[in-house]
Design goal:
heterodimer; A: alpha+beta; seven-stranded antiparallel β-sheet; five-stranded antiparallel β-sheet; 37 strands; flat; B: alpha+beta; ten-stranded antiparallel β-sheet
Chain lengths: 951, 791
């Protein structure tokens, strides 16, 4: 500042000459004010804008699609309902081809409807007797009266070339047909794509030579095809005789000449029904053949391996109650789509079901039922890119919807109201066309948005293809267009909450107890060093904690699991025991020692507690988690087939069993061996000893908590015992405290030293006894109820598990909770303490009955802030878990949190795609979660501040 | 604080319930204490672990010659030992064998599990695992002979072996015999006597690819200037400094002479590409003059006129005259804003701006060609010098043999017959003969290398200099951004904003933002900074949002009008001294605020829709320059992340400045800004500094957002270099935290990386603890100062 400003006068006398404030001062004041106002306001707005920006990126996910219909164009082709077999567009939406049921292919210019050519698809005079569904990339198969079939593709091809002089008149982005027809018999379309470039698009028919089916007699009546890239598999029915399942391979000889086909065929008998099926389909993996009748019946034939096992009828399912109007396959050819007369579309697929009474243990299940555009359904067209379909009805309406998410993307209605005989989605999913019975073709460019994402698909269980029932799944990496991305956020939110819960269970008591001790029982001098030391921990980068968790803590937990679990019981017991012993020391001696001695003694007690856990843990493992006698018997080979009556119903007929199912079976004393259910056979003592020795030799008789967790050995009781210990401990503590109080009451007036000795020594012992007894009783009750802890809180052991994350993340949040709690406790006015102590309360009573209630809200808000931190912690979770998005309660299993999911997937997610936006949604969910938690904490803190101000 | 047993008065009245002689709740107090002790122990253990592992990471360990019972023999550095899990049966067997004296007692742990030892055997280029577990019971003997060398190399990691010979290897074109086939022309092996010492010389015919696909015969002469372990080791030590110098010189030449050359080449190319793009745009009709020249001239004149008016008016105002009325001030503001708009128009529509003609393009191309040929000749000259030095370097080689594989360390894995060049060695020592002092020296030399060198071999060797550099630069940049913004926001909140519901809501929001997970900031940074803002900087507004020129100017005019309106309402809402606050004033103030927000929106819209801006890095597209992860965006993201920290601590500090000081300042007639500048800010400075240091510490330790917005496992170039613009904010960088994550979890050779991870961890913790400690100390000092009533 260069201009002189008024200086305060030191003398106190008013200066004689008042200098006028130079105008620069005002100007600078104004400038500073506007800079600070505008800048500061903008900074705050920007900070608050984060949420808005995240929401703006997420928003498009929940918006529907949009369409821009063009005026319908008349086309001169047969468009009677039933006569049209299919409709297709080129990739650039310039032309359309219509295939009629008699095998005539007509190509049109989309803009004008002008006919580009018309020809019999299989060559002149060859009228196919059956045409398959027109599938992805134009794949289809033709069947003929002589029993031959052809497979191949019918689609547009295009190439870009330099513009010719006479084409310069075409405006950029428009097209016109060529005058003369090319080799394919169709006139090509010329589209001007750039100043100097045109694209030539022409329909093209590529068919293999005729191949005679070896199975059945007469004309081919129905057929379907799928390809795995190298060969085509055709399933066909004939006028009489068995149906054929044929694999056709086309061989182009190197020396030129026409291509030949090689056929491998298998036959299967269609089970008797009055009529031939109206549709026949083969699934995209070749493992199922579906025969569908107009009345809604469907027979599924299992063809898992036609080379080695015959194709047999697996099941008959009623697909719809009302007559079927049309049926087709979804992209990937695993899902069957059936449209009925009352306007519904159902999606069916085969899903593995161990309980299914079918030979392949699969079951045809209905995954989705979608309401069509309104009227009776006429046709269903499928997308080549995703699970979108276009459904048309008899009133000229069309609806584009997504099968997996059941999202209705766009609906279109025609002015004329005549039936919409065919609908098709353009190859690039950017346009839709509907052919009406009045001979017009309406075409609409549309933007699908994010059809696979709905609120439901993100948060509710979804029935994905190949699953027997709806489930929450998160699997973002889809191999190709046919694979479904599964983007349920629920497992991620579950993982976040699980991590947070375990961390809070660990951190909250430790931090709050330590804070109470620091504030109430520690001398100010020690407190001044202890508190910053713990606070320093808060600044420790989480990447370091994560690294230590994965590199050091995880192996320790893996190796010392029994000891660590035991220490949770032995350490508190030892400390209580130690405290009891200490109280036995007469007051006058104790008074001679300060707090520092207590510190040392507590440390000692801790060491003793951990030390005893080190020894007791393995011993407990040896007694609790070892193979039972029946385990040993079965392992030793002494078993017989189980009585049929004993076998639980869910087992059914099966050749294999998952470890979890085996464990369930073992709970009722049965085992699964060599493909059957068996029961152990008691043997004589010597034989038993031999088995034991033998098992010992093989290392199978070793007790191991990890094998127990994996479900290989042992029953549910020990698990429940361990799980119930905390419950037992609480019950035991309450009970022993009552008893101690009773004893004290009786001894009070005598001031009996003996009573105190009994209490001091007896209480911990009694507590231990009660704890174990309660836990054992509870465990027996739960076991007899047929429950197993390994189905819920325990289970398969993975080295990087929730427990480790909980402990390490606990460490990350302990300093926060500790520091804020301690502040809250320290800010409790001292006169309260003085009053309490003065009234004769012990420091413990003062702390727990006077100080803690006043500081409770502060401690609560500290915990909330810790919680908020745990929810968003990224690096620890990322490094210390396996990051599998599972949803189970098992504390020895990993999980994936929202934050880790972002860190894992966002660097690779392509900008603007559904996954990218879903990851932004993860961020937004995290933002909202922490914002809510922190706001709660803040409100509580403000409240208690006000309240405490009155004290 | 009284002791717990204190309240037990001896002479209590009978009828009062006595407190027992025995401290009530003692056990609970013990539990509380145990929680604290447990926390402290765990913290101490954690820091101790990191310190121990980090400090011992570079301690030179001895090499053992290990003989196994199976007869296998190898050289290796023992790294660590551990017990491993086996069946109970096996344990019993082992125990029995120990009791029988068959194996040593240290082969099993206390619980009977067998022990195993990890040896670092190196020699990855001889196709072996660089680490090897050996069960102690299999061990026949492990001795420490004097000779083996521990060789750290530029590539392929560590080599452990015996020195065998030092050779000088020369190549000469092979003479041809009369049939045209190459011959040796001298005995294949002979012993020459040079200066009294016999030197063995071998010759070999070699087919060498002199140019791609041109193979010529050479005679390779190898002179064994030292043979045997002792002589070789001695000579190797003598030759090492010169070899290191050659390596450094080669590296320097590649980096400092070739690097700028190719950078210049790229820039040249981009200039021509840019010219071509501009030509295409000119021909397509964009970027040229949108208005008639007469309009432009009129605008120029008008803007000059208004500016002159403003200047004259302000001169008048400065001298004397009555205070301008509100209307006058509004008019003044309007004139300034209009002039700014006109100037913008004049500049954007300047004649010749943004137009490119074919002639000009040809000119640019011709210029480029001249510069290019110059650059090419410079390049050739440097390349020749490099080749000469490289040829000299090629002569000095050392044979170090791995006895287990029976092969020596090769120059390359694909050239197993060529011994490695001495310059390929970065450090070599005989660990078993080191004295304590040498060991210590080596230890510190390795630390120095760690701190000062670039990483090698997928970061598992070498140092972390670029990592430290990146971390420090990032922290500095984020501090530069966050401190002014945070102080500005805090000043606004404390000094200017009206305290009320809105400000307390904002305050809660800011507090909460401190608790928003860092990864969320990363997501925001990636989406907003990298893709949205970065994309704009690269390529300008996207085609779909660009407006036609005329409409855009309409938008600009609207924006300027709103600015004028907002500012006028603001002026009109000011009260005269003494005038009471009426609803009219409030309404005007609110309108002004709304108008300002609208003006902000319009200005943002102007940027998003301008047809004049096509990005600063159009010529590099489709490769993004700023539209990707980079230093700038990372530091902005972290600045946003740490903003609440600075705002909160600054606000607290401002609030703590005693009101009497402020009132004194006002009482002396100081303006608000003068008070803030001279009284409030200096008083709050320690608090601001604390906030700054805390922000730095938080920023330096964050990893999650950096994974999304810019940190890479390996950034080839430092963000600061000698070529313009010196500070490359678009570049990616390396970061200590991310380095730890990457080394610990993504490393191809995690065992080799382990010491480096621990050392990096120690480094990171040290930096952050230092920052935090200084913040804590600063805070304590300030509190003391404030508490003692400095003023």
């Amino acid at each position: 500042m260069t201009t002189p400003s008024p200086q305060p006068d030191q003398t106190g006398e008013p200066p004689r000459i008042v200098r006028r404030t130079p105008p620069g001062v005002y100007r600078r004041d104004r400038i500073a004010e506007s800079v600070i106002r505008v800048g500061g306001g903008a900074v705050l707005l920007t900070v608050l804008g984060i949420c808005v920006y995240l929401a703006a990126v997420v928003m498009p996910l929940f918006q529907g699609g949009s369409a821009e219909p063009a005026a319908p164009v008349p086309i001169a082709a047969t468009t009677a309902p039933g006569a049209v077999h299919g409709l297709q567009f080129d990739e650039y939406n310039q032309g359309a081809v219509v295939l009629t049921a008699d095998g005539v292919l007509t190509a049109h210019h989309l803009e004008t409807g002008e006919v580009l050519g018309r020809q019999q698809i299989a060559g002149d005079g060859m009228v196919p007797s059956a045409i398959s569904r027109w599938g992805r990339d134009g794949l289809l198969a033709l069947g003929f009266a002589d029993g031959s079939v052809q497979t191949g593709t019918v689609r547009f091809t295009s190439e870009v070339r330099e513009v010719a002089a006479d084409e310069l008149s075409i405006p950029i982005g428009r097209s016109r047909p060529l005058e003369a027809a090319g080799d394919s018999g169709f006139r090509a379309l010329i589209e001007r794509v750039d100043v100097g470039q045109v694209r030539v698009t022409v329909p093209r028919i590529d068919l293999t030579p005729h191949t005679m089916l070896e199975v059945g007699e007469g004309a081919v009546t129905r057929l379907d095809v799928f390809t795995d890239g190298r060969r085509q598999t055709v399933v066909a029915t004939r006028e009489s005789g068995p149906a054929s399942y044929a694999s056709i391979r086309t061989i182009t000889s190197l020396g030129g000449g026409p291509p030949r086909t090689r056929l491998t065929s298998y036959s299967f008998e269609l089970e008797a029904r009055q009529t031939q099926p109206d549709w026949i389909f083969v699934s995209g993996d070749g493992a199922h053949v579906y025969a569908v009748w107009r009345d809604g019946a469907c027979q599924r034939y299992a063809a898992p391996d036609p080379r080695n096992s015959p194709i047999v009828l697996a099941e008959t399912v009623q697909l719809t109650d009302s007559p079927v109007a049309t049926a087709t396959k979804l992209i990937g050819s695993l899902t069957l789509l059936v449209g009925d007369d009352v306007g519904n579309v159902s999606a069916w697929f085969a899903a593995p079901d161990p309980n299914a009474p079918t030979p392949d243990q699969m079951h045809l299940v209905r995954g989705h039922k979608i309401r069509g555009p309104g009227g009776s359904i006429v046709s269903i067209g499928t997308s080549w890119r995703d699970r979108s379909i276009v459904v048309t009805d008899d009133q000229g309406r069309a609806l584009i919807c997504h099968v997996a998410s059941e999202k209705r993307i766009v609906s279109l209605a025609s002015a004329s109201g005549s039936a919409a005989v065919a609908g098709a989605i353009a190859p690039k999913n950017d346009a839709v066309g509907v052919l009406l019975a009045d001979g017009t073709l309406s075409h609409a460019a549309y933007d699908p948005g994010y059809p696979e994402i709905t609120f439901k698909s993100l948060f509710a269980p979804m029935h994905y293809e190949g699953q027997s029932e709806p489930a929450f799944s998160y699997q973002s990496s889809a191999g190709d267009d046919a694979a479904e991305p599964k983007l349920s956020l629920t497992p991620l939110i579950f993982g976040t909450l699980k991590a947070t819960l375990v961390a809070m269970l660990f951190a909250c008591p430790l931090a709050v107890l330590a804070a109470i001790y620091t504030s109430e029982f520690l001398s100010p001098g020690v407190r001044r060093t202890v508190k910053p030391a713990i606070e320093l921990m808060a600044s420790l980068p989480s990447v370091v904690l994560g690294f230590v968790a994965a590199m050091v803590v995880a192996p320790i937990f893996r190796d010392l699991l029994p000891g660590i679990m035991t220490s949770m019981i032995t350490v508190p017991l030892t400390i209580i025991f130690g405290a009891g012993l200490w109280t036995l020391v007469p007051n006058r001696i104790r008074a001679g020692f300060g707090r520092r001695t207590q510190f040392v003694l507590v440390t000692l007690a801790l060491a003793v507690g951990f030390g005893s856990a080190w020894f007791v843990g393995p011993a407990l493992e040896r007694t609790l988690f070892r193979p039972t006698t029946s385990d040993l018997l079965v392992m030793g080979g002494s078993y017989e087939p189980a009585d049929a009556g004993d076998v639980p119903g869910w087992v059914g007929v099966r050749s294999s069993m998952s470890p979890d199912e085996e464990r369930r079976l073992r709970q009722v004393g049965l085992y699964f061996r060599d493909g059957g259910v068996v029961q152990p056979v008691e043997v004589a003592d010597e034989a038993m000893a031999a088995i034991r020795a033998d098992m010992l030799e093989q290392g199978l008789d070793t007790p191991s908590i990890r094998r127990w967790l994996n479900g290989e050995i042992g029953g549910p009781w020990p698990g429940w015992l361990v799980a119930m210990l905390p419950v037992g401990a609480i019950l035991g503590m309450v009970l022993t405290a009552r008893i101690a109080a009773l004893i004290r009451k009786r001894a009070q007036y005598e001031g009996s030293h003996a009573a105190e000795v009994v209490i001091a020594i007896g209480q911990p012992i009694a507590m231990l006894a009660f704890t174990v007894a309660f836990a054992a009783v509870l465990a027996s009750v739960l076991t007899s109820m047929g429950l197993d802890a390994r189905d819920s809180i325990f289970g398969r052991f993975t080295p990087r598990n929730s427990l480790i994350v909980g402990v390490i993340m606990g460490f990350a949040i302990i300093p926060i909770i500790y520091s804020i709690s301690e502040d809250a406790l320290a800010s409790v006015p001292n006169n309260l303490r003085a009053a309490s102590l003065g009234s004769g309360a012990s420091p413990w009573q003062t702390a727990i009955k006077v100080v803690l209630p006043v500081a409770a809200s502060g401690i609560f808000s500290a915990s909330m802030i810790g919680l908020g931190r745990a929810v968003g912690e990224t690096m620890i979770v990322l490094m210390a878990t396996g990051n599998t998005p599972t949803m189970d309660l098992n504390i020895f299993e990993g999980f994936r949190t929202l934050s880790a999911n972002i860190a894992v997937e966002l660097p690779e997610a392509p900008k603007g795609e559904a996954l990218y936006r879903v990851l932004f949604l993860c961020g937004l969910v995290l933002f909202i979660m922490t914002f809510l938690i922190n706001t709660t904490a803040e409100i509580v803190r403000q409240h208690y501040r006000k309240k405490n101000a009155l004290l | 604080m009284p002791t717990p047993s204190a309240p037990s008065p001896t002479d209590t009245p009978r009828h009062v319930r006595r407190t027992g002689r025995y401290g009530r709740g003692e056990s609970m107090v013990w539990l509380l204490g145990a929680a604290l002790v447990f926390n402290i122990i765990m913290i101490a253990a954690l820091f101790g672990l990191v310190a121990f592992e980090g400090l011992r990471a570079f301690w030179p360990l001895p090499i053992e010659r290990v003989t196994l019972r199976s007869g296998d023999e190898f050289l290796g550095v023992p790294v660590r030992e551990e017990a491993f899990e086996v069946s109970a049966q096996r344990k019993r067997e082992l125990l029995a064998r120990v009791e029988a004296g068959e194996i040593a007692s240290d082969a099993i742990a206390s619980d009977g599990s067998p022990m195993r030892r990890l040896y670092r055997v190196g020699n990855r280029d001889l196709a072996q695992e660089p680490f090897r577990w050996v069960e102690i019971e299999d061990l026949e003997s492990a001795e420490r002979p004097d000779e083996p060398l521990f060789v750290e190399r530029v590539e392929w990691g560590v080599f452990v072996g015996f020195p065998e010979a030092v050779v000088v290897q020369t190549m000469s074109p092979a003479p041809l015999d009369d049939k045209g086939s190459p011959v040796l022309g001298a005995p294949a092996e002979e012993v020459l006597d040079e200066g009294g010492t016999p030197i063995r010389v071998t010759r070999q015919l070699r087919q060498i690819e002199v140019e791609p696909r041109v193979i010529e015969p050479f005679v390779m002469t190898r002179r064994y200037v030292a043979e045997g372990p002792n002589d070789s080791w001695k000579l190797l030590q003598e030759l090492m400094p010169a070899a290191t110098e050659r390596r450094e010189e080669l590296r320097r030449m590649r980096r400092e002479e070739i690097g700028p050359n190719s950078a210049a080449m790229t820039r040249l190319h981009q200039r021509t590409v840019q010219a071509e793009i501009e030509l295409r745009r000119s021909e397509a009709g964009g970027g040229g003059r949108a208005v008639h020249p007469a309009v432009w001239w009129a605008a120029l004149l008008a803007s000059v006129g208004i500016l002159a008016g403003i200047v004259m008016r302000s001169r008048q105002g400065r001298n004397a005259g009555p205070k301008p009325t509100a209307i006058g001030r509004v008019a003044q503001r309007a004139a300034v804003v209009a002039a700014a708009g006109l100037l913008l128009f004049v500049w954007l529509e300047r004649p010749g701006g943004g137009t490119m003609t074919p002639e000009r393009l040809a000119e640019i191309n011709a210029d480029a060609a001249v510069v290019q040929s110059q650059l090419e000749s410079e390049y050739a000259e440097v390349a020749a010098r490099i080749a000469a030095l490289r040829a000299e370097d090629d002569e000095y080689r050392v044979i170090i043999r791995d006895p287990a594989a029976g092969r020596f360390a090769p120059e390359r894995q694909s050239l197993p017959d060529e011994p490695m060049r001495i310059s390929q060695i970065t450090r070599v020592f005989a660990p078993n003969t080191l004295s304590a002092g040498e060991r210590l020296g080596l230890y510190f030399a390795r630390w120095w290398e760690f701190l000062s060198e670039d990483p090698r071999e997928a970061n598992t060797e070498g140092g972390v200099f670029p990592v430290i550099f990146g971390t420090v630069l990032l922290t500095i940049l984020l501090t530069i951004v966050v401190v002014p913004l945070g102080v500005l926001a805090a000043l606004f909140l404390r000094e200017y904003a009206k305290q009320g519901l809105v400000t307390s809501l904002i305050r809660i929001a800011v507090n909460n933002l401190a608790g928003v997970p860092s990864i969320v900031y990363g997501v925001f940074g990636l989406g907003f900074f990298c893709y949205t803002v970065g994309g704009y900087v690269d390529a300008g507004p996207s085609g779909s949002t660009q407006l036609p020129t005329f409409q855009w100017w309409f938008l600009v005019a609207a924006g300027l009008a709103v600015v004028i309106a907002a500012s006028s309402f603001g002026i009109l809402s000011l009260r005269r001294p003494g005038e009471p606050d009426t609803p009219k004033h409030t309404a005007l103030r609110v309108t002004s605020t709304i108008a300002w927000i609208a003006a902000f929106g319009l200005v943002a819209a102007m940027f998003v829709t301008t047809p004049y801006f096509h990005g600063f890095f159009e010529s590099r597209l489709p490769d993004p320059t700023f539209g990707k992860r980079g230093l700038l965006w990372a530091s902005l993201t972290l600045a946003l992340l740490t903003l609440p920290v600075v705002i909160v601590s600054t606000e607290e500090a401002i609030a703590a400045v005693q009101p009497s000081l402020r009132e004194g300042s006002y009482g002396c007639g100081a303006s608000k800004w003068q008070t803030i500048k001279r009284v409030v800010l200096p008083g709050a400075m320690p608090g601001i500094l604390t906030g700054m240091i805390l922000a730095m510490a938080r920023g330096a330790g964050e990893v999650a957002p950096l994974m999304l917005v810019g940190a890479l496992k390996w950034a080839p170039e430092l963000p600061i270099s000698l070529d313009a613009p010196f500070l490359h904010l678009d570049r990616s960088f390396m970061h200590l935290g991310f380095h730890i994550y990457d080394l610990g979890f993504q490393s191809p050779d995690s065992e080799a990386a382990r010491p480096l991870v621990w050392a990096s961890t120690l480094l990171l913790i040290a930096v952050i603890l230092l920052l935090n400690l200084s913040a804590i100390m600063l805070r304590a000092r300030v509190r003391r100062k404030m508490g003692s009533g400095h003023f």
